[in-house]
Amino acid sequence: MMSFPPVMPEIFMAASTLLLLLFGLFRQKSPVNAVSVAAVFICFFTAVLLFCIGWERTILLNGLFIIDPFAAFSKFLILSGVVLSLLLSAGYLKSEEALERFEYPVLILLAGIGMMVMVSANNFLSVYLGVELQALSLYVLAAFRRDTIKSAEAAVKYYVLGALSSGMLLYGISLLYGFAGTTDFALLSKEVAGNGNGHIAFLIGMTFILSAFAFKLSSVPFHMWTPDVYEGSPTASTSFFAIVPKLAAFSLLARILTGPFSGFYDQWVQIIIFISVASMVWSAFAAIRQENIKRLMAYSAIGHMGYAMMSLLPNSPEGIGALLIYMTVYMFMVAGAFAVILYMRRDGQELEHLKDLSGLSQNHPVLAYAFAVFLFSMTGIPPMAGFFGKLFVFKAAISGGFYAVAVIGVLSSVVSAYYYIRIIKIMFFDEAKDPFDMESAFCRKVVILLVLVCILGFVVYPAPFVDTSFAAVQCLFSGT
Amino acid sequence: MLDFPLLSLLTFLPLIGAFFVLTVRGEPDQVAKNAKHAALFTAFFSLALSLFLFSRFDPANPDFQFVEKYEWFPTLGIAYHMGVDGISLFLILLSSCLTPVAMLAGWRSVTHRVKEFMIAFLILESFMIGTFTALDTVLFYVFFEGVLIPMFFIIGIWGGHNRIYAAFKFFLFTLLGSVLMLLGLLALYVETGTTSIPDLMDASISPLYQYVLFFAFMASFAVKLPMWPLHTWLPDAHVEAPTGGSVILAGVLLKMGAYGFLRFSLPLFSVAVAHFAPLLFWLGVVAIIYTSMIALVQDNMKKLIAYSSVAHMGFCVLGIFSGTVQGISGGLFQLISHGLVSAALFLCVGMLYERTKTLELNQYGGLVTKMPFYAMLLMIFSLGSLALPGTSGFIGEFLSLLGVFQIDRAVAIFGALGTILGAAYMLRFYKKVMFGPLENEKLKNLNDLDVRERAILVPLALLVLWMGVLPSYVLDYVTPSVDKLVAQYEMGLLLRKEPEP
Fold first, then answer.
1. Closest-CA distance of chain A to residue B410, Å
2. SS3 B36
3. pTM for this one?
4. Residue whose C-alpha is closest to residue A212's, from A169, A255, A256, A178
5. Across the A/B interface, how many CB contacts are shorter than 8 Å?
């Protein structure tokens, strides 16, 4: 069998994305459809390439790039998230003239490449490269509906605060570099381990870096941008923000915490506990009063990041495996939820108010039941997949001895159940309004069906996915 | 032994039926009719299957029977593990017996979204049976909490005026208890390394852990049972739920809490149970006396029966936590008896409500002349509820009190007061509905029960009488497993006492 160098998937994806951009430029009319289809195919071929390269731990490009089972598996998940977002956006882009531009799929692909670089980073330089490539694409996606002030406002907010977080990231990296003399993960790890309880400058640098990640993951106290950006961006962009970047950021965070910072476990665990608890509690209470479905999804995302964060606490393969499972399940649930939200349209106008969903079960029963399944899954009610995500996360926390965090977690999940079932109440118990416009969005239906099958089917045959996740994370711990 | 997976079939048959009901299409009237018949057929089919299970069950064997075990999460050791013993057998029968009853109860009164109504009950049945057959803690939890979803819809869509408040209260209360149990399950898993219930029964758990885990589990079961002071969701849920929902709620869902105590608390946390038993007894006594007194002044018939349920579950608590063979068998018997009696009482009230659209006691009176057959049946069930000898209620309460009498006499004496109060409120209820002058104009042209209603109530009445006259038939099935449970409980206590000097 032919063997490719391990960076082949990224190289292929980047080259073909740029070609796609050129192709679009030389066309008179914006070829959205063709580019979208091509983008899905690019993801598909990248996944095939990813399958062909060797997955054993390899470091190349002068230590900037690492491939191991964890990175490869994360990349598969990222690619599937990218494909889900592309499918979701397909119908949406055609709905308005202002949105019908071929750059959208290209930007999504670019963000995807950034995320793939992130999960393969073995050096803080490549971390920064990946994070920025991803973030810059996201800023543009937020501003994609150029003719509305709301979208522009969201983009500016996202950009300014994102730049701030990038600054914090860079400052943290420079502190580490200044005191350790390297940005390489393996060398840093040795340096940190030799430092005993930690040099104060290292700790400050690490705190800055973790703050930047908390920003990317929209965790409390760096969550403020999330509701505004979610609300203002075009809904398809919002769905992309919600689906993929968080998985990538978490994979990278897991690699950094278990790699270079593993010597500082006692220190970073305090930070993570605070972020996790604050996110869960804050989102549970703040979401109760939300009346805008996109803002509600933003607060729900903040809470889910808190739960996922909990799985980092024990610093064990079990925890990181739980993290992968949780984030993947979350990715699917959110994709399904946004597929339903994208249907919220009456007389050509997009709707965002929760009340607009009232009586959905009578006008569009399939949509309502699918949404109910996704919402119950997000609440963590069995037998939906979301329950198992929570189960593994809580198990990881308990086996690490973090009982108090786990108790706060389940209690805030009960509070958050209120706003999830409130949506279900609006859909099922309230009086029906006029039906939505039913667009012929084939791709969106595919997404809903696929997510339904995954979420309901997980309970039947979870073994392959769960086992792969737990097997993939072993490599993070075997080296140390 | 059977060579096909009877328990899985029994558990998932309603789900398969629900899927077929889902595919029913066509004209709205036709859909409703076909959905009803398909659902009822499925429910009767699973009733037949559970009777088959009953006939093949070996009463002399105290262990789990019809055991099935398949890999589920192989790396974590969580398995798909099912089995039945004498404790769960009758609860399974109760579930499969009450589901068709609940469907028939909504046969006429449910007119909108009939298809979804039937699907909700089928899913509910599947989860209920699953709860009683699961032998793996995670699997148990999946079924136990999954029940919330169909019940939430049943109360919320087909309920009364205040249905949304009641549905939310039911959902959030129960969820709050359940999630604490989830943490308990996980802690138990981390501590012992297994999720298999039979293996857990052999594992030894340190006393400190037992105390904490006992409360984690109790949070869930006490809400579900419900124990005073966590019962406040129950009257709301009952009053607002449609008749079929009340039947299942009182008949089966409350039993899940008691089943949890029997399956987890007693064998796993015996030290904690023995330590906290006095507290639980007094909570039970308070529940019996306090809620009986509330029932005594209720003017809403459904509320009255709901409060009486809390009181009756108090007897179960007394019996179960006495840790004696009589007490536990009595508690279990009381579960089954109350499942039948309270379900039947809710049906009776529901039948009146369908005719008159009111639940207020003051609106009734003198019905005995108009509905003699109904009066006879209601008499049987009321007597069953107030535990008259000769009905099933007597056996359950008597054995429970007998059990607790051996442990703590004061508790037994105060508990026995509850039977007097029970007689008071049930007879008041009966008198107000049946006797006295027939004054309300609306009642003057009421019809007696029709064939469908008789077909629902008469079998339940016969069961109540039969269990009251021949309790040994049920107890023979129950006793071996209860003996084993008591042995485990006492063994757990002994093992703990030894290391102390």
1. 37
2. helix
3. 0.93
4. A169
5. 81
